[in-house]
Write a structure and sequence with these properties.
alpha/beta, Rossmann fold, 4 strands
Length: 200
């Protein structure tokens, strides 16, 4: 994986790979030594991955961007990754062009979540409302309902959709008022009934 990433990035104008390691404990040391603009961190490197992200983001006051790479597509593992303060999340199975887009987005200051990862949480978000429903959910409300049903917090939803927590709260409040829902359990039940979420 590291060899492929090195070749991919080194072949792009304006990119330079200044260091690499397979040792989780060496990551922070290398970041302090080279102060890179971006760290590509393999979440499968070590169980300390989330702590490494937090240390980088806290220790360098946001000057160093972090893009997490993962081979996982299990909702639980991806939820743990979203709890980190990373700037982007990409799946290892993506092709070179998709990974480059992820790198460029993060370097440009945008939050990035790859389509493969988002699809784990939003498999049914674009389904049409069932026939006979008096009210229709907007595409964003469908996404919010599906993600709430998956157990994600407002902060995790904001990261996944690259929007602010305030925007998530607003959409959540609007859909609760529209469908007369009072809590996450009722949102989940509504999402199941409308086909936005299928319990595993």
């Amino acid at each position: 994986m590291r060899d492929g990433l090195r070749m991919l990035l080194s072949g792009q104008a304006g990119f330079e790979v200044v260091a690499e390691t397979g040792d989780a404990e060496a990551v922070a040391l290398l970041v302090r030594r080279f102060l890179p603009q971006l760290v590509l961190l393999d979440m499968d490197l070590d169980a300390q991955g989330l702590e490494i992200v937090s240390a980088i983001k806290a220790g360098f006051d946001g000057a160093v961007k972090v893009l997490l790479l993962t081979g996982e597509l299990q909702p639980g593992a991806l939820r743990r990754a979203l709890l980190a303060d990373a700037d982007g999340y990409a799946h290892k199975s993506e092709d070179g062009d998709a990974l480059l887009r992820a790198v460029q987005a993060v370097l440009a200051g945008r939050q990035h979540v790859s389509r493969g990862i988002a699809a784990v949480f939003l498999p049914s978000s674009l389904r049409r409302d069932a026939a006979g429903e008096a009210l229709a959910a907007t595409p964003r409300e469908r996404e919010i309902m599906s993600l709430v049903a998956h157990g994600l917090s407002n902060r995790e939803i904001a990261k996944l959709l690259a929007i602010s927590v305030l925007t998530v709260r607003t959409h959540r409040q609007n859909l609760m008022e529209k469908f007369r829902l009072h809590n996450a359990a009722e949102i989940t039940a509504c999402a199941v009934r409308r086909g936005y979420y299928t319990p595993s």
